[in-house]
Model the fold of this input.
Amino acid sequence: MMRTIAVAMLLCVAAETTWAAQRYPVTGLVLKIDPTHRTFVASCKAIPGYMDAMVMPIPVRDAKALDALKPSALVDFTLVVTEDDAYAENLQVRQYQSMEVEPLQARRLQLLALGAAVPDFTLVDQTGHNVRLAQLAGKVLVSSFIYTSCPLPNYCFRLSNNLARLQKRFADRLGRDLVLLSVSIDPAHDTPEVLARYAATWRADAKSWHFLTGPEPQVKAVCRSFGVNFWPDEGALTHSLHTIIIDRHGKLAANFEGNEFTAEQLGDFVEAVLGQRE
Done:
């Protein structure tokens, strides 16, 4: 009798263990927010042993949890998976922390707000031709800010590699729907000829991926709009990391700071912007 009771108890414990909620730490890049349905869509990094990296809608139990989110935010959360449900809890927007000590003047730069119209500008690309923002209206633009002699692999190289991955992923839409821009923050050194050699290392098509330079005041004005800071530091340039996305209407769709998002997540966000109705 005692043995029967013990076996029954073990079976109950096993059943409870089988259906116990599982919790997984997740980092996702927010693509869309739907407060009405208490859901956000995110490009999530892989969860080892559970799922590959993917884009998925994620519900929350309390709609107020979505208040701190915005498209392009990188968010850490716990994915709770039950027998017949899944939802996110403990949402925390990740704030990028630069390891560099920025000059006070740089920290006071004013960023364009998401949804704001991006001011027109004209710079020169690697072929020596002028590229005017207004002439690219109707296309989605992705821009990063780099300089060709940057020695750190997780800074300019990573940002350029992200755009190279976009070039490959959206090869059939480049030039037609999507244009890539790499703005040099070192115009004194990065002449069109230097940028042409740098562009060649990425196999960049000059018709759809422009490496831009120009007079220093113009470059600084463009950078200032997006909060891009750079300053000389012991013979090199120290700079903040920004990748921006401008939608078809010339409005700022995203301003990613840092380098903690993946190329796949950036591509998922670009795909979402490309899919928006005109």
Remarks:
- The mean pLDDT is 86.
- The longest helix spans residues 2-18.
